[in-house]
Amino acid sequence: MKIIQVNDLTRDFEYYKKAQGIKGSIKNLFKREKKIKHAVKGISFEIKEGEIIGFLGPNGAGKTTTLKMLSGILHPTSGSATVAGYIPWERKDEYKRMFAFVSGQKTQLWNDLPAIDTFYLNKCIYEIPDDEYNDILNELATLLDVKHLINIQVRRLSLGEKMKMQIIASLLHKPSILFLDEPTIGLDIISQQKIRSFIKNYAKKQKVTIILTSHYMKDIEDLCKKVIVINEGSVVYNGHLKDIQSMFHMKKIMNLVFSENIDFEQLKKYGSIIEQSEFKATIELDVKTYAQNTTKILTEFPVIDFTMEEPSVEKGILKLFERNAGNPNE
Amino acid sequence: MNDSFSIKRNKYWVSLSMGFVNSMEYRFDFLISLLSTTFPIIIQVFVWTAIYDASTKEVLYGHTFPQMMVYTVFAGAISMFIRTGVEQSINRDIHSGQLSNFLVKSIMYIPFRIMNSIGEKLSSIVVMILFSVIASIAMYVFIGFEMQVINIILFLPAIVLAFLLNFFIFFCISTLAFWITEASRFFYSITIIVMVASGGVFPIDIFGTLYVKVLKLMPFMYTTTFPIKVINGTLSSGEILNGFLVQIIWIVVFSFFATFLWKKGSKRFVAVGG
User: Fold this and answer.
1) B9 → closest Cβ in A105, A124, A153
2) Is the minimum CB–CB distance between A171 and chain B shorter than 8 Å?
3) How confident is the model over B72-117, as pLDDT tens digits?
4) Which of A57, A68, A72, B141 could bond A88 through an S-S bridge, CB–CB 3.0 to 4.6 Å?
5) Taking the domains of chain A in order of start, what are their residue ranges?
6) Count of CB atoms within 10 A of residue B97's CB?
């Protein structure tokens, strides 16, 4: 069953340009140059109930703007959308009780109060009975390992802890649709992983529909089978992740440090060298053979240290663009 | 399901208590804010004492010195009581994009803000009541000011209606933040203008009869001047009832206006950041 339907959704923003410095500011007081930014340009897609969809795209692509329209925060400039039969920006109370919007950048927690106060306010807002509230809160706080922190003023918590509290506050009313806007932004690798695995388990257990935005490829790969890639306000790709995964993973980047000088010609057998200097090299490896080649490099050369890197999401999107330019119907 | 009906668990009641708890979170700031609510009144008392001392006339602007003292004390207390600062909270919510968090939740913003504002100023309301009682006793002792019980009783609805009216006036003004990106300084100046027009600084008679006529057609004096006149006994019971009616009409007008502007404005909301 289709739960989210989006047709030709568009959102423009007006803004003013300001030249640098005092001169620009004074000029601006009298005459401003009005500009229009097309944040979302006529996007359409459908999402089935229970799916976890990844919204992938660089900063400013229109991911958050789309989510804000689907959660009713923003009115679109044109186009239509329905979520579970509701038009989001009509802001019907029944609709609001069905979903939760979790933003990695804008907290719903009261900064000067402990998180438990925000939880209690949400309990009252959504009229959750006492027993149910205690059970859910207990379960979520245990799963996310923050039980000992719920009585501490929010502003004293770390970024990762705040994010966990935000997630708890958003899930208390058991929403069936979740909009997760960059839930792992700015977090360290371990916190990212914890939040990711929590979302994964939660989705499996509760059968919720999730739209997740992120510009970390890892988030999307771990959680979503399907992705919608957007760039500059338009949908670049909509389909299964595995079909485009190769775009994002054609190459792996390996940084190497050696104990002595090596013959770089020998190293070239395994991939193309991006950078080389005394005792150091950065090499691009093909994803298909990189496991074997990595072992070979590690045994054949006097390696004392190495790191592996993923190419950035932006590069993958660029490749998608190139492919689409060649075959626009795809 | 019984507990969802209990008042204590009502979402708007909890908004009130959260405002109260939030205002007490920083003890030093809390204490100073309580003390500072009485400063402007004390300053006014000194100013008027000096003016009457320097003047050769008994009556200035239609008020004798004792009447002016009574007016000043109550004007100060009432303006403190009715001022919610809601315009700053709303401006902050809109400007920072924090409003998003309210728009997605199953809670209405206007009642939430009323209750939260009451909660945030609950402590200063208590201080103002204590101050008024002490000041009334002092005025009785020093200048022979007497209050009628009936006036005290009638004062209660007058002040509650004044609070609501003032809330909705400022709510309407604050929706301007949807159209103007940064409006906090504008709100500071408008607060002062409204306070003067309400009679919260000195009696509006000072401006002369023409201005008084104009001001009477506006809602502002019903937030401050009217409750003062109820408690100091200058109005007849008919005038008081009439005043209540005008207060209620203005509240209805402004609450409709507030809802209308809110709907219009929140369509324009751009939810900056994140």
Assistant:
1) A124
2) no
3) 989 988 988 888 888 888 888 888 888 988 999 999 999 999 999 8
4) A72
5) 2-247, 251-310
6) 19
Nearest CA in chain A to B20: A113
The verdict on a CB contact (< 8 Å) between B14 and A124 is yes
* Contact list, A68 vs chain B (CB under 8 Å): 100, 271
* Of B144 and B230, the one with more pLDDT: B230
User: What is the model's pLDDT at position A324?
Assistant: 67
Ranges in chain A, pLDDT < 50: 328-330
What residues of chain A lie within 8 A of the CB of B107, using their CB? Answer: 125
Neighboring chain A residues of B11 at a CB cutoff of 8 Å = 121, 124-125, 127
- Assessment of whether the complete model's pTM goes beyond 0.90: no
Q: How many CB pairs under 8 A join A and B?
A: 79
Please name the residue ranges forming H helices in chain A. Answer: 21-30, 63-70, 93-96, 115-125, 130-143, 159-171, 189-206, 217-223, 241-249, 264-267, 290-300, 313-326
Q: Which of residues 108-137 of A touch B (CB under 8 A)?
A: 108, 110, 112-113, 117, 120-122, 124-127, 129-130
Share of chain B above pLDDT 90, in %: 31
CATH topology of domain A251-310: Alpha-Beta Plaits (3.30.70)
For position A327, what pLDDT does the model report?
A: 53
Residue B128 CA: distances (Å) to CA of B17, B76, B81: 19, 9, 7
Residue of chain B nearest A130, judged by CA positions? B3
- Mean pLDDT, residues B38-64 taken together: 87
Using the predicted structure, report yes or no on whether residue B162 has a pLDDT greater than 80: yes
Contact A125 B271 (CB under 8 A): no
Q: Report, as an integer, the average pLDDT of B32-48.
A: 83
pLDDT at B150 over 60: yes
Contact B106/A96, CB-based, under 8 Å?
yes
In this predicted structure, what is the pLDDT of residue A328? 46
Pick the CATH number of A2-247 from 2.60.40.10, 3.40.50.300, 1.25.40.10, 3.20.20.70: 3.40.50.300
CA of B65 vs chain A CAs: smallest distance (Å): 46
Task: Quote the pLDDT of residue B273.
Answer: 52
Q: What is the predicted pLDDT for the residue at B272?
A: 62
Residue with tokens 């059970």: A135
Q: Check if the beta carbon of residue A225 is closer than 8 Å to that of residue A241.
A: yes
Return the domain boundaries, chain B: 2-268
Is the CB of A101 less than 8 angstroms away from the CB of B104? yes
CB contact under 8 A, B101 and A64: no
